Amino acid sequence: MTQEKDKVFIFDTTLRDGEQSPGATMNMQEKFRLAQQLVKLNIDIIEAGFPVASAGDFDCVKNIADNIKGVQVTGLARTNQKDIDAAWEALKNGENPRIHTFLATSDIHLKHKLKMTRDQVLDLAVSSVKYAASKTPNVEFSAEDATRSDLDFVCRVFEAVINAGAKILNFPDTTGYALPDEFAAQIRYLIENIPNIDQAVLSVHCHNDLGLAVANSLAAIKAGVRQVETTLNGIGERAGNTAMEELVMAIRTRADLMDVRTDIATEYIHPSSRMVSSITGMPVQPNKAIVGANAFAHESGIHQDGVLKERTTYEIMNPCDIGLSEGGSLVLGKHSGRHALKDRLKTMGYAALTDVELNRVFSRFKELADVKKDMVDEDLEAILLDEVIQIPEIYQLISLGAMSGNKTMPASAVKLMVNGIEKQGAAIGVGPIDSAFRAIAELTGTRSKLLYFAVSSITGGTDAQGEVMVRVEDDGKIVVGQGADPDIITAAAKAYLKALNRLEYLKK
Ligand code: KIV
Ligand code: ZN
Fold it and tell me: What pTM was computed for the model?
């Protein structure tokens, strides 16, 4: 009989550390939608936010703890009663809620940031963990900047907080400083030198400043940790965190060397990654491992030939395992029916569409299939994000005509439905997109500022759908909008209008 592999718990902090990526702010509905997706992925623990940070953060955590079942929900708290009270208030209705409290242990932080002695830090960690444990037995303690701390001091703190009631001990590489061998040795040192370590789960939380977050997390698992904190697409503070999809697929793909398993439903990885990039407005780089557009694309003739003869010649993972179809994606064409579409959406993780939603997606699918020969998963996702996730459309694009060329003054004529009234206008600009945006700004009367604009091609080929992401700010509110269309100027206008609709919605 083969022995069951040890489980590594996946703690997702996309909604907390991930949201600390510059510009990745998410609103309450977006966080909730992502939390639902994390449940589909079978994440073990969702860190939903930092409740004391703002009323908005508190509401987001509470909304998720109150309504999302089948997963532990946690919220971050510094080691003081106000933070812990706020976290508990937000979390208390959740299933097995966890309080995650943290305090720095490195001398650099003690001297310059906290202005505390080691003994004071030890006392504060213990009293705070005791206070948190008076609310729930499920308490996690993180030693911030642990990898640059004196390990004997971390051992003392961890031993004491276990006695105070902490059940999970997190050893973060807060600054992304560690190298894999060194990190693994640090973990082994903790295991050998904390007498009561068997009463807690050891966890790591790695940052990617040297591009080593996944490598360090894998090394830590091999050294004995059984919880890893990750984010989707690796987003997070500065260079980001351990990318969940990379860690999980490394464990799965190299099962021959990794004596552990995760319970992640990997077939939801790709749709989840798309959801994160569409919500945050942070595109995934094409060569990103696992979820980049090129991750399963074979360009060289030799490679293509090899893959056609036998996929495993150049592919170490099956694209189906992360929710793509065989061959990376191609699935449907213009002759495909509603049933095939429904089936495909189901495999992509969108099983819960209502008939009305499915009809809307189907009719957009048919429109696009008329102009684009091959439809891939990304095309369907772009349609889904446009059609299913509905925010009232105060502004609707009726038509758009743009003129450009190397000897022409770029100009656009735009017709919009604004609050049910048809309006049209025209503008010139430095390029066709600029002129279209100027015309839209005039018709909608928006005073918002465009913070970010990115164009990418969803798939290869000149008939590919262009995808545009914008981030727009008005009166301190920041929203993203995305639009997809074979015509790039139309995609840009759609993205802009989507963002303006979101702003209107938020204002209300
Ligand atoms: O990077 C870090 O140290 C953190 C802790 C709060 C876990 O995010
Ligand atoms: Zn962090």
Answer: 0.76
